[in-house]
Write a structure and sequence with these properties.
By secondary structure, the protein is α/β, with parallel strands linked by helices. It has two domains: 151 residues, Mannitol-specific EII, Chain A, CATH 3.40.930; 130 residues, CBS-domain, CATH 3.10.580.10. Helices cover 36% and strands 19% of the residues. It contains eleven helices and twelve strands. The strands form three sheets. Strands 1, 2, 3, 4, 5 and 6 form a six-stranded mixed β-sheet that branches. A hairpin with a 5-residue loop joins strand 8 and strand 9. The two termini are 22 Å apart.
């Protein structure tokens, strides 16, 4: 199924004079017509805004994707709104919104909702298409833009649909002190280790650093109270400017290809007890999937 086939021109609103997300959401719900009972519109707006404030649905710069499953909804609905002017967000630091997708799904369409959200995310990877959508002046033209993209709503959610970009990494030759600085700023407690050609060779986690900081004969200490006689993490501080990541990183990382199904990714995580799995395509490191990403992107929506 193609993404554009889920859109109806009546559900695509262009140059809407909405100044707040509340106004925009209300107009989008009203555009769905009799699929949404008029008396429920205000309640749905309140619920969507509350969800937005708690867990913002911004999936790309200047784009948000409010979504909800409804008990009494009979049809799968996808709407689009391009505001006349970017809409400020109430969340501190949030980018003004220039494009809104909205998905409302019956309770029995969970998988289809996830697949559609993933298709929209793939569509927005093209900055050219996104800018064209924001600048379009007719609903028909906007739908044709999406049609021309050829984006499919895939039957299976795959690794590339939920992977996060690599924002922090170290090389095998990175000094530990610098590696710690990068790890502190990273989104998780592990970062990939690459060679000089950018190929993944391992990962550095907080566990390796903490292990280095403890006495080497830690396993022989029966009474933890004895540890108080040691200087805290003395071994780490003695070596932080001389040891490299190569000497402490772990090599037992798990990798998958971009088209590996999320079910397979989850199975690998659970059976191998991994918090992170790396996405590789032809030896290139493309992204990382955190265990929490599956909870956030798949289970919590």
């Amino acid at each position: 199924m193609k993404l554009y086939s889920l859109l109806n021109e009546n559900h695509v609103l262009i140059d809407e004079p909405a100044k707040t997300l509340e106004e925009a959401f209300r107009r989008m719900l009203q555009a769905f017509g009799d699929a949404i009972e008029p008396g429920h519109v205000d309640d749905l707006v309140d619920e969507l805004i509350a969800r937005e404030q708690q867990h913002p649905t911004e999936i790309d710069e200047a784009v948000c994707l409010p979504h909800m499953r409804l008990d009494k909804l009979e049809r799968f609905l996808v709407g689009l709104l391009v505001p006349e002017q970017p809409i400020p967000q109430k969340n501190e630091g949030g980018q003004p919104i220039s494009l809104i997708f909205m998905i409302l799904a019956p309770r029995n369409k969970n998988t289809m909702m996830l697949q559609t959200m993933a298709a929209i995310a793939r569509l927005l990877k093209s900055k050219k298409i996104k800018q064209a959508m924001i600048g379009v002046r007719s609903a028909g033209r906007l739908i044709r833009l999406i049609e021309d993209s050829g984006i499919d709503v895939k039957k299976t959610l795959v690794a590339q649909d939920i992977m996060s970009p690599i924002t922090h990494q170290v090389t095998a030759n990175t000094i530990l002190a610098k590696a710690v600085d990068l790890l502190v700023d990273a989104p998780d407690e592990g970062i990939p280790v690459v060679n000089d050609h950018g190929k993944l060779i391992g990962e550095l986690t907080s566990r390796e650093l903490l292990t280095l900081g403890m006495p080497k004969y830690l396993d022989l200490i029966v009474n933890p109270g004895m540890l108080d006689s040691f200087e805290p993490f003395e071994n780490f501080f003695q070596n932080e400017n001389t040891m490299t990541v190569r000497e402490v990183c772990r090599r037992d990382v798990i990798t998958v290809e971009p088209n590996t199904s999320i079910v397979q990714v989850t199975h690998l995580m659970m059976t191998a007890h991994k918090r992170r799995i790396y996405v590789i395509e032809e030896d290139d490191l493309k992204g990382i999937i955190y265990r929490k990403s599956i909870v956030v992107r798949v289970l919590h929506f």
